[in-house]
Amino acid sequence: MKILVMGDLHGLKPRLHYKDFDCIVHVGDLGDDSKLGPLYKKYFKLLKKDENLKLGWEDFVKKEVGLRKYNFYERDSLRVGNEILKYLDSFGKPIFLVAGNWDQSYGPSKIKDIERNYYSYIKAFYDWYLGDRINPKLLKGTKNVFDCMHRNHEFNRINFIGYGNSSGKEILSKKIKKKVTEKQYEILKKSLKKIHDKVFNAYRSRKNKKFLTIFITHNIPYETKLDIAKDKDSYAYGLHLGSSLARKFCEKYQPLLCVGGHIHEGVGKDKIGKTIVLNPGFGRDAQILIDVDEKKGKIRKIEFYNKKN
User: Fold this and answer.
1) Over the stretch 93-141, which tens digit does the pLDDT of each residue have?
2) What are the sequence ranges of the domains in the chain?
C-alpha cells in the first residue's frame, strides 16, 4: 500500500507530486495563518526580549487588532483550511487526519485568564490538548476524511491512531512543580494522565491487534533530530519542542511508523527503538510517499519530495 503523508500547510493549497497512492495521512495545521501568523511572531519576539513579559496574549491582541478582527481572522482561517481539505477529499481516497494547533479544535477549559499565573497557563494547555474532535467547520462537506483524534481507524490491515492539538512537550517538570502549589500540581498530574489515557486507550482498544500501526501526531516526538527549533527569531531557538506524549507512545508501543509535524524545519527521518519517525515539514511541497507491505509488516520505500535522504 502507498501512503501519501503531507506536512503542515497553514492555508497553502498543496501541489501533489505523487499521483499513485492509496490514502493520505495529514498531520494537521490546515488553517490559514497569513493574518494570524504575524501577530504570533510579533508576540514571540516580545517574549524573546523579556521572558517575564507581563503583557498577556489577549491584551496584546486587543491592542494590536481588537477582538472583533481577531475573531474574523480565526473564522477565515478555518474557511481556507476547509477549502484545502475539500480539494484533497476530491481524490476519493481515505484521508487520516489529526488537528494541529492552528485548526481550532482545542478542548474546552474553565480557565478564563491563562496569563493569571503559571498554574493557569499550564492547566489551560492540558485542557486544550484533551480536545478529541476536529473542528466540524474544517471537515464540512468532506466525505473521505477520518478523524483520528484519540481514536483508531482501520484500512488495508493498518491501524491509524492519532493525537492532535499538541504544540509542545507535556512534561510536568521540576520547574513547574516549584511554581505551583502542591494541590495545583496534583490537578495538573490528573489532567496530564487523562490526555495519556485517551491516546493510549485508542491503541489498547484496537479490534485487530495483529494489524500494523501508524501513529499520527501533530507534534513530532520530543528529543529527536526532528523537533529542534532552528528559527533564530523564535524565543525557543535551539530547544527541543516535540511532544513528550508522542515519544512515550512510540517507546511503549513501538508502532511501525510515527508521522508528525509542527516543527517546520525538522524535515527528515529518525528512529525511536524500532519505530521510524518522519517529519514531512511545511508547505505546498512537504510530502512523503511511503510504500508499505502490510502483509509482511515491512516498509518497502520512503521517499521525501522536498529532501534528499
Assistant:
1) 999 999 999 999 999 999 987 878 889 989 999 999 999 999 999 999 9
2) 2-304
- All 3 cell numbers of residue 25? 495521512
Surface-to-core class of residue 148, CB atoms within 10 Å of its CB (0-12 exposed, 13-18 middle, 19+ buried) = buried
Question: What is the longest distance spanned by two Cα atoms in the chain?
Answer: 58
Give the H or E element holding residue 45.
Answer: helix 37-49
CATH for the stretch 2-304 = 3.60.21.10
- Residue 128 three-state SS: helix
Structure letter (DSSP) for residue 249 = H
Kindly tell me the burial class for residue 225, based on how many C-beta atoms sit within 10 Å of its own C-beta (0-12, 13-18, 19 or more).
middle
Do the beta carbons of residue 7 and residue 15 sit within 8 Å? no
pLDDT (tens digit per residue) in 21-46 = 999 999 999 999 999 989 988 887 88
Containing H/E element for 71?
Answer: helix 67-89
Question: Which cell goes with 18?
Answer: 505523487
CA pair distance 126, 184, nearest whole angstrom: 13
Q: What is the pLDDT of residue 51?
A: 66
Total H helices, total E strands in the chain: 8, 12
Quick one: which of 209, 196, 200 has its CA closest to 161? 200
The CA-atom distances, in angstroms, between 2 and each of 26, 158, 254, 283, 291 are 14, 12, 21, 21, 5
